[in-house]
Design goal:
Butyryl-CoA Dehydrogenase, subunit A, domain 3, 59% helix, mainly alpha
Length: 292
């Protein structure tokens, strides 16, 4: 629909600016409200699904609609993962440039550089190792998605799952290790222009293109459904470690549902287990995707 006519907002449409943010003010985020707006059926975006009579119809069988129309979201998730990694890379590089030149006090004439303080030396090494893993994983996600886009193909379920993992892991790992760096490098992290004052950018990444927490809950939910559908009745001797952990958590949830009669309450009461299982699934997804 057209939001404006002769330059004026049409009746029933309300635009509202999000307001000033700590970072990301170059993004024109806003809200759009609809009040008693009616549109004809032919205004539907119905390439992949439609409404026939009163029934919702999926035009392409065997593939979730979200996967068909979500290519822009998938590219966005890869971009968000890359953005988080680049912010982190720049933060660590500029900080190390400072610590390499910052001498520490010592009782003798041999004044060590701040970089050689054990905790900083360790975190720089840890970051290098973890960045190499994430760069390779996110890079492969980008490469595989690019092939799909160039060939006008729908991404496979495996690729969609890998992209979700890339977004979550790249962002959450960057938040965690950047926070630790901030708390080890001293008063330098309080200075304007060091990059630490822009750390809210990583929070932006956390919620962009799919909230991290929601994505992790979806991973656990989907894996539990797959277990119930295909594995729960099979010989337990054939289960791998992941399936055993899924089965154990499914048993906990089932017990709570029986006790309370409420699936939502059981899920919420076991929220730590939801995210812990998601971490297992993400680790295994990364390993299996990189082996392909």
């Amino acid at each position: 629909m057209n939001f404006r006519k002769d330059g004026d907002v049409v009746p029933g449409i309300v635009f509202k600016d999000m307001g000033k943010k700590t970072v990301g003010n170059d993004l024109d985020n806003a809200s759009i409200g609809f009040n008693n707006v009616k549109l004809p059926k032919d205004a539907l975006l119905n390439r992949f699904a439609d409404i026939e009579g009163e029934e919702y119809i999926q035009k392409v069988k065997g593939m979730p609609v979200f996967h068909m129309i979500g290519q822009r979201l998938f590219t966005g998730r890869v971009a968000v993962a890359q953005a988080a990694l680049e912010f982190r890379r720049g933060l660590f590089e500029s900080t190390k440039q400072y610590t390499d030149k910052k001498a520490c006090w010592a009782p003798d004439d041999q004044r060590p550089m701040l970089t050689n303080i054990p905790q900083l030396k360790a975190i720089f090494k840890e970051n290098d190792e973890k960045m190499a893993v994430m760069d390779a994983f996110v890079g492969k996600c980008e490469s595989e998605l690019a092939k799909c886009l160039k060939n006008d193909e729908t991404p496979s379920i495996a690729l969609v799952e890998a992209i979700a993992v890339a977004k979550v892991k790249a962002v959450e790992e960057s938040i965690e290790i950047s926070h630790r760096l901030q708390n080890e490098v001293g008063s330098y992290a309080l200075m304007a222009g060091t990059g630490f004052e822009q750390k809210d950018f990583l929070t932006c990444c956390k919620f962009a293109e799919g909230d991290t927490r929601i994505l992790m809950q979806k991973m656990t939910r989907d894996r539990l459904k797959l277990f119930e559908k295909k594995q729960a009745s099979k010989d337990t001797s054939t289960w791998d470690d992941e399936t055993k952990q899924v089965a154990a958590f499914a048993k906990v949830l089932l017990k709570d549902v029986k006790n309370h009669g409420d699936k939502v309450k059981a899920w919420e009461d076991n929220w730590r287990g939801v995210y812990a299982l998601a971490e297992v699934l993400m680790t295994n997804t990364m390993k299996s995707f990189m082996r392909k």
